[in-house]
Amino acid sequence: MRHFDMKSDWDVRAGGDAHKAIACDDADNEAAFRASGERDIPLVLDGVTKILQGRESALEIGCGTGRLLEPLARHFDQVFGVDVSGEMVRRGRERLAHLPQVHFLEIDGQGKLPFPDESFNFCFSYITFHHIPIKSVVRRYLDESHRVLKAAGVARWHFFGRPAGILASIREAVTHKDTWRGCKFTLSEITAGIRAAGFEIVDAHYLPAKSWRLFGKTPPDVIWITARKPRAARVALSGSK
């Protein structure tokens, strides 16, 4: 398997123009960057608030410098962000130092989350997983999301998708992958992975690109999935005493 150095690559991007690496079209200045977070946080919370059981804590996987953590802090008592880039984490702590309820942690990028079991009410990732070139790492983040969520906790993820047909499979197989252009999933593939991690799927949307061709640059298909950790595990444990 090819080796990818996520940490070094993203430290370089963060050291160059962190805002540009996070939000390509909204990086002209701090005001535009902050406004993009305000614009996108409703996408992250879409359908979540009505099924959420608590608002004590939330976790973002791939937080960058806190573009989404800042507006998220209005919705939860404590918000945590993890990122593979130590430089992103450093800049995020500096940028949001005025918000004591926002916490940044650096991770190794291999899928492990540095938190105890059942720590969060909500866990999400937006425009991050498509930068990961190895699907097993994405699946590990799904498993870890399940572990760190409380019973009945909610997760919401954004993926780049692809059609299930043979032409799309060929294109995906021959497409060069690195730490910028990572993996894509079919809807059935990623929903199977989410269920295997132990989640109940609440909502799944596949949004196809407006144009598609076998080779050449095209807009990505997008998948949004909202899932919930069942209460059953806790109920079963209490009932076995």
Could you explain the architecture of this structure?
The structure is a single chain. The protein has 241 residues and is an alpha/beta fold. Helices cover 37% and strands 21% of the residues. The protein contains eight helices and seven strands. It has helices spanning 6-22, 30-45, 69-72, 86-95, 135-148, 166-174, 187-196, 232-239, and strands at residues 57-61, 78-83, 102-106, 120-125, 149-161, 200-207, 221-228. It has a seven-stranded mixed sheet, with helices on both faces. Helix 4 links the parallel strand 2 and strand 3. The longest helix has 17 residues, at 6-22.
The percentage of residues in β strands lies in 15-25%
SS field, number of helical segments: 8
Radius of gyration: 18 Å
Mean pLDDT: 90
